[in-house]
Design brief:
Elements lengths: L1 E8 L3 H10 L10 E3 L2 E5 L6 H6 L5 E6 L9 H5 L5 E4 L2 E5 L5 H11 L5 E5 L12 E6 L4 E6 L2 E6 L10 H10 L5 E4 L6 H9 L4 E6 L2 H13 L5 E5 L2 H4 L7 E6 L9 H7 E14 L5 H13 L4 E13 L2 E10 L1
Parallel strand pairs: 6-7, 11-12, 11-14, 12-13, 14-15
Antiparallel strand pairs: 1-3, 1-4, 2-3, 5-6, 7-8, 9-10, 15-17, 16-17
Helix pairs in contact: 5-6
The chain binds S-adenosylmethionine (SAM).
């Protein structure tokens, strides 16, 4: 099976293999091969530019025709089905209503070499700080970990602050729109996944990251250090109030508080420099994906004496039956 791979000198292969495993980039369904002096490590996808910096030593990206693994352990072999779960750092999350959670957890730990803990969510994300409670099903008793995403690392405590890996692609899409010299205000920054990834793109980008949850901001500050970025200002506070200080400065305003973002639209408008882009996230019903939200954004623009041009509307992911997580992007003139 032809696949993109990392080619590295055999004697330098092990640290590279470990790094790829941690980044969830190594394709475990294929056999690692030797080709002369080199080791070819199969990848699940093309690495992001930031991820390439995380791979130690010298290597090259190339292609190779791989053999499948002979005796690859699969969840189906243990369970007869593939349960829904996600992995954050070395923690796997399953839903609390999964049948036979202990059996599922045991199977995940056997198949996923990097998982040390399996937690079940005790309910949905809730409250002002958008946090969840968990119970441990298997492994170490912990809710904190370090998660890697597109070459950045994040300290996270899943019970203390919001984080989801499901927005990784979305974050990289916003990243592509930010240019050197611009200022970004991340109004609901959490532990910093948008802010830090954007800041890492260039030291000439200024990022102002606000969150009301003191624990999230503590993690955000640790993550700024962990990723060695010096162009993120971490601010603990209410986004409506903090926006006053940065009037007219932002070229991009990120509003990732999907249930309540509309309550912060006047502040977002105040933040906007001419031609700034607001990236507005909402949870909307499938029969009114963008219309009502666009009306609210338009009304806020009117109150601020501004005009908007819609640059993009898209579905980010499904959220609940008949409800979708959407992103609306408008240019504020
Ligand atoms: C859905 S989370 C998004 C976090 C982050 N952007 C991410 O993608 O992981 C929303 C965040 O908004 C924060 N928040 C809620 N109300 C706020 C407010 N009035 N001002 C600033 N932050 C707020 C919460 O603490 C939470 O961290």
């Amino acid at each position: 099976m032809k696949r993109i791979c990392i080619r590295v000198l055999r004697k330098k292969g092990e640290p590279v293999r470990r790094a790829l495993l941690e980044m969830d980039l190594l394709d475990n369904s294929l056999r690692i091969c030797t080709d002369g002096e080199s080791l070819c490590l199969p990848l699940v996808r093309e690495p992001h530019e930031n991820e390439l910096w995380e791979i130690p030593g010298e290597f090259e990206l190339s292609g190779y025709d791989f053999e499948p693994q002979k005796e690859q352990l699969k969840l189906e072999d243990f369970l007869g089905r593939v349960p829904h779960f996600e992995v954050i750092g070395d923690i796997a999350l399953i839903e609390d209503d999964v049948p036979e959670p202990e059996k599922v957890a045991e199977a995940i730990m056997k198949v996923k070499n990097n998982v040390r803990t399996v937690l079940a969510a005790l309910g949905p994300v809730e409250g002002e700080f958008r946090t969840r409670r968990f119970r441990k099903i298997a492994g170490e008793d912990k809710t904190s970990t370090i998660h890697r995403e597109y070459g950045c690392r994040y300290y996270i405590d899943l019970e203390k602050a919001y984080f989801t890996p499901r927005l990784a692609t979305e974050r990289s899409r916003i990243l592509a729109q930010v240019r050197e010299g611009q200022t970004v205000v991340d109004m609901f920054a959490g532990v910093g996944p948008y802010s830090i990834m954007i800041a890492k793109k260039s030291p000439d980008i200024r990022v102002i990251a606000v969150d009301k949850n003191p624990d999230a901001v503590e993690f955000l500050r640790r993550n700024i250090e962990l990723n060695s970025v010096s162009n993120v200002e971490a601010i603990e506070g209410d986004a409506n109030r903090e926006a006053e200080r940065f009037s007219g400065l932002a070229d991009h305003v990120i509003m990732n508080l999907p249930h309540n973002a509309h309550e912060f639209l006047d502040a977002a408008m105040r933040l906007c420099a001419p031609e700034a882009i607001i990236h507005y996230y909402g949870i909307t019903p499938e029969d009114d994906l963008f219309g009502s939200s666009l009306e609210l954004i338009g009304q806020a623009a009117g109150r601020a004496g501004r005009i908007i041009e819609v640059s993009d509307t898209r579905i980010v992911r499904s959220y609940a039956p008949h409800q979708l997580n959407v992103c609306i992007e408008v240019k504020v003139i």
